[in-house]
Amino acid sequence: MVTTASPRRMAPPKSNYKWIALSNTTLGMLMATINQTILIISLPAVFRGIHVNPLHSGQTSLLLWILMGFNVATTILLVSFGRISDTYGRVRLYNLGFLVFTLGSVMLFLTPGKGTAGEWELIIFRFVQGIGGAFLFANSAAILTDAFPANERGLALGLNQIAAIGGSVIGLVLGGLLSAIDWRAIFLVNVPVGLFGTVWAYIALRELSSMQDAKRIDWWGNLSFALGLLGVMVGLTYSISPYQNHAMGWSSPLVIISLTVGIAFLIAFLIIETMVDSPMFHLNLFRTRAFSIGNFTGLMGAIARGGLSFMIIIWLQGIWLPLHGVSFANTPLQAGIDTIPQMVGFLIFGPISGRLSDRYGPRWFATLGMAVSAIGFILLNMLPADFHYWTFAFDIFVVGAGMGLFASPNTSAIMSSVPARFRGAASGMRATFMNAGMTLSMGLFFTMVISSLSTGLPVTITRGLRHFALPPAVIAHLAHLPPLDVLFAALLGYNPLKMLLARTAAGKALLAHLPASQVATLTNPRFFPQLIAHPFMDALRVVFLFSTAMTLLSAVLSVFRGERFIYDDESAEAPVLSTRPLTHSFLVLALSLVWLSKEGVQPEASVEQEASLRRSLTLLAWALGFPDAQDNEPEEDQESEHGGHAPYHQATGFSAAHDSRK
């Protein structure tokens, strides 16, 4: 059974409505994106709160799902929710997203379980949050595009993007502050904001776009897309976990099957979308250059920066801050504060770029943004493990400034290039590319880092421990710890050497036979970060070079997005005259033939001369783009109602075609 929703266009909003829409959607985006990163820096407090040791067997995969569950749920559902919102109302489903997200936050705050049960509860409740986040992400840009005129969309979407990307940095600082109070506070902070936003959105926001007739839902497209993305993300998630004697899980049957099945479903999805009447993924939109290049450059930018925050936090929290004497209890807060320059760069250049792109077009601002980001990644690549803070601050400021320059013009170009009736779907597609890029970035970054660590870490640890009176078997065991466990140990503030040597009976017996000076060195909080710093920096430089390459490719592609393009629904509804290209040579030929047959206009012209003139004028009309010129060409013996031959201008249909252009 197919239900229908009456298409209707709401009355024009008051002049201040656009600012209400901007402030509410910005609040929603800020809340959702803070939630994406607030856990990264709060994980030590969360694991202590639910009584879990992340270095125990089997904990790594659960840890990854706690981190990535929100993004996975959001990415899978974005396009579907955007498509549904075009039919049932963007504001209505945006409001629902606020409510669902808030309920998920309440459940996370009340998480009752401990140990592994608590981990699974966190994963499930994060998925609930992700469902709400999908509604928010899918409709935010579409609501703003409806509310703002074309010459102000860049500024509006730029401010909204500041909330989206700036929120990911704010989440790091806020996570550090709240986790120092109580781990549940990082989820509780969303509840009052979510309740306020839900009520405010319900009261203040209203539909401005005409809702389409509800068509049959593309169930096969939705199912194949969800299963395809889920398969790929499951494969990427478990690929970075150790499998048997391998440092990574690429040889795991689960990874191979998940990736194969996921890719197969995505291929099936593309085929299905070309066959159904009402597809969830409008592939025809990619025929518009501004839309396709905008999404692909956004995808490459998301891949370049998606895992950056996580890697920088590991760098700060696990290596640099302990080397400078900051206790593990205080590293989350300090690491969050140290990343503020990246947010400042984005906050400064985001609105400026949005305003200027409204005036001069998005191409060169988006291109410049990616180029500046590439410079920032090159500068980060040149830093040592123990850097001077202000040099680091400047480098991440440059990265943030580049992302700020890029985000607003690119989003405005995408959303302005589609018809109003497809803005919900287009917004969902844009957000899907962004979220998929960020999730893919996490998998790629971890793959590159772990691959490099698996080569350099055993040699470094063996060399660093051979000066101590430790048995060779113990040194070999420590040298071959899974690289992922070492990374998470650094991030979470655990010292594997102290845990293995001072918290077991065998370890305590071993330490009892070591000189006191060696025991103090091995269990010192600075020793382990210093030990892994060199191989970690080698791995991190691979990531920075990869990000540099991705941003440079994005900059090159952005050059080809063309001049500013805004889809005008009113012009699109006017009669389409012709899609045939007009070339100079063809037009010159038609004009030459008209000139050669000019005798046909004379009263004493023969039938053949008049027919020749009619054919020449028909050819000229066709060259100029009048669609009915050939169809209206009469037979040569056609006569007028007065018994004579039809006048040449009537016979060619030139006058009628000309009128249709007015």
From TrEMBL:
One function term, GO molecular function aspect: transmembrane transporter activity
The main location is membrane
Record protein name field: MFS transporter
SUPFAM superfamilies the UniProt entry points to: MFS general substrate transporter
A single GO cellular-component term from the record reads: plasma membrane
Biased composition, class Acidic residues, residue ranges? 630-639
Membrane disposition: Multi-pass membrane protein
> Which InterPro entries does this UniProt record tie to the protein?
MFS (IPR011701), MFS_dom (IPR020846), MFS_trans_sf (IPR036259)
User: Keywords in UniProt for this one?
Assistant: Cell membrane, Membrane, Transmembrane, Transmembrane helix, Transport
- Give the Major facilitator superfamily (MFS) profile domain ranges: 21-497
Segments passing through the bilayer: 21-42, 62-81, 93-111, 123-145, 157-179, 185-205, 217-238, 250-272, 293-321, 333-352, 364-383, 389-411, 432-454, 474-494, 539-560
Classification of source organism:
Bacteria, Bacillati, Bacillota, Clostridia, Eubacteriales
User: Where found?
Assistant: Cell membrane
- Region: Disordered, residue numbers: 628-662
PROSITE patterns, sorted:
MFS
